[in-house]
Each structure stands twice: as structure tokens, then as C-alpha cells.
Amino acid sequence: MRKWIVAGNWKMNNTVAESMALARAIKEGSSGIQDGSIILAPPFTALFSVGQIIKGSNVSMAAQNMYYEDKGAYTGEVSPAMLKDLGCAYVIIGHSERRKYFRESDADVNLKVKKALDTGLTPIMCVGETDEEREKGITKDVVGRQVKNGLAGLQTIDHIVIAYEPVWAIGTGKVATSEQAQEVHAFIRGILRESYGKAADELSILYGGSVTQENIGDLIAMDDIDGALVGGASLKADGFLGIIKNIAEKK
Ligand code: PEP
């Protein structure tokens, strides 16, 4: 049985005080919801404080990025061990904003995924096509390549989460239809089944891209959509809790 997951990616938003207030509100509003995973991904600067707030609760924490070395002369980077030390259980890897603005390649994503796993963090690996790629009809080529390259060399996918995030849907208000999303989710699971067999049916695949409490219902009703990675709508406790409750009820 796959577990549902709702992750809130706060991106480069919220001071420490704002992060603490938001984490507190989400923790309180979601207490009693136990069967899935609720994950907050604050900016690095707030990880320590948010980690203290959610300790011992049903809410977990993710970092939004990491480097693939343990330590050393990598000015400005953060290692997976440092993230674990702060209480992170997950790390978002290969978000389209990292791929676009910081030129992260599939090879970088692969190094990060492997290092996260070695350190005991669960990677939430993001994949997704751009508008132009969808227009050209190469969505599955692009997503297939990102999935295969990102996971290259892994013997098991037991501790991996994948987020399908069509780039044209991120932060645009242009959510994918449930059929569009389901088609790609099923395609991803199919690829994983080829290499990893039944483990593919245990892996959670999240949809991300302009998810709100209003549109999550149709998406989460689809067989291969196991949860959501939420950007904008995770910045307000009410909206994010609405998404969590919708998913917890339906999955
Ligand atoms: C995201 O950044 O992962 C995301 C899905 O953003 P939004 O929900 O704002 O589209």
C-alpha cells in the first residue's frame, strides 16, 4: 500500500519568525492526521527553528536542496549530514527552478540522489517537461530521461519519492488536468517497473504545479497520483491544511 504525501515547498520565502508561525499552525491544524506524510520544506535559514517545532509530531521536514559532498571547501553549499543534523528526513532534489536557474543537470541530480540515500535522507526527485517540450510532443522522452538518469546506478528505489512537476504548471496557476497528470504518473511507474519490478508499485509519485485546495480533489482521485508537492499554496496555513485534509480523506 503506497502512502500519501503532501509536501510544502516554501522556496525563498519566510523569515525565521514567519516560518515558525507557519510550521506551528500546520502542526496544530494537522494533528490527528496520521496515515500519510506531511512534509515542510522551509528555507535553509529556518530549518533549525522549524525542526524544533515539529519534533515528535506527525509533520516531517525537507530541505529544498543539498550538495553531494560530505564536507570541505564548497563555499555556500550545505551537506546532507548537516541537513540530517537539523532534523530533515527528506530533501527535494532537481526542482525545475534548480535545473533552470542553477543549471543542474541530470548527472548532478543523480549524484545528489545517491548521496542523500547514503546519508539516510529520502530524496524527493523532481521531473517535468517545459511548455515547449509538451507542445513538441516529447513529454515522455524528457520525463523518461530525467527519471532514468536521475536514478542511474541505484539497485533499489525503496527510499525514493518522485514528484512530477510540469514546468508550465509551476507557479503559473495553469494546473495539469487530472488525465494529463495521471498519464505521466502511470508512464513513470511503468518505467520504474521495468527496472525495479514490484517496488514501483510501492513508490509514491507526487503531482506538483499550481495545486490548491480547490483543484486537488480531481488530481488525487487518480490511481497513480499519491500526493502533492505544493509551492504557492503551502505558504498559507489554511490553504495548505485544506490540501492535506482533502488528500487524507480521499487516499
Ligand atoms: C513547486 O515549486 O514545486 C510548485 C509546485 O509550485 P506551485 O505550487 O506554486 O506551482
Please name the defining characteristics of this protein:
single chain, about 250 residues, TIM Barrel, eight-stranded parallel beta barrel, about 40% helix, binds phosphoenolpyruvate
Summarize the structure.
The protein has 251 residues and is α/β, with parallel strands linked by helices. The protein has a single domain (5-250), classed as TIM Barrel, CATH 3.20.20.70.
Question: Can you walk me through this structure?
Answer:
This protein is α/β, with parallel strands linked by helices and 251 residues long. It has a single domain, classed as Aldolase class I (TIM Barrel). 41% of the residues lie in helices and 15% in strands. The protein has ten helices and eight strands. The chain has an eight-stranded parallel barrel with strand order 1-2-3-4-5-6-7-8, surrounded by six helices. The N and C termini lie close together (11 Å). The model has no long low-confidence stretch (mean pLDDT 97). It binds phosphoenolpyruvate (PEP). Residues 9, 165, 170-171, 208-211, 229-233 line the site of phosphoenolpyruvate.
